[in-house]
Transport permease protein
Amino acid sequence: MSTSTARTSTAPIGTARIATARVRYEVRSYFRAPDSVFFTFLFPVVMLALFSVAFASADAIQAGPASVDYATYYLPGLVATGILLSGVQALGVDIAGERSDGTLKRLGGTPLPVMSYFVGKIGMVLVTTLVQTAILLAVASLLFGVTLPTDLSRWGTFAGVFLLGIATSSVLGIAISALPREGRRATATIVPIVLVLQFVSGVYLPFMQLPTWLQDVASVFPLRWMASGMRSVFLPSTFETGEPGGSWHLGLGALVLAAWLVLGLVACRVTFRWNREDG
């Protein structure tokens, strides 16, 4: 009786220890992959620098009495893009590769709990996205003169969108990893999806300049709401008039992200296997 009780009480501690070790392992593995570092970690920073330099001499973007330069205007969308890249793209490609090269099959033959594996992956997304976003904000502020918010309520909104976006993107990344039949096809399968979402979700193009039907399509997916949520943090309040309905719609955005989070969890539960069963 006492032995059983002891095992029950220490099991969560053991699982947490394994999960923490997996997070450290996943973070180290992430930064050892040059393609992940450049196309996921550094991509938003490179794009911010590119747009800031390209439009350095252009007129400021106006909304009512307020105006911002292009570095400020593009920063929110690129923060949101970084979350999507770190979750959906990085996890989707990574897990598909591990399934293809037999890594998942080998892990399935060990005592590693599935939950610890998931915690390791999601923890990696959280850590890398935190570092990525910190670098992005530092580059925007120190190199391109972007004025960051001083209002605590805005940073509260940032934290909410950031954490919900990471959770949603992570589970969708795990779920989408089941799409490629082979690991070598993962990049060709997943990257175009993420790229198209960036162009239709108000990251590179003003959202209201898109056709109404394309706005409606983009509004089904998480990135459009992460981008508008981040715009509510980093842009003056007068820019709210440039959103559909003249509002940031933070509540609706949270509901859409939460719906995708639940959908992603269900998809993970249905599709995740240590080894793909072909045929």
About this structure: Confidence is low (pLDDT under 50) at residues 1-10. The chain has eleven helices and two strands. The radius of gyration is 20 Å.
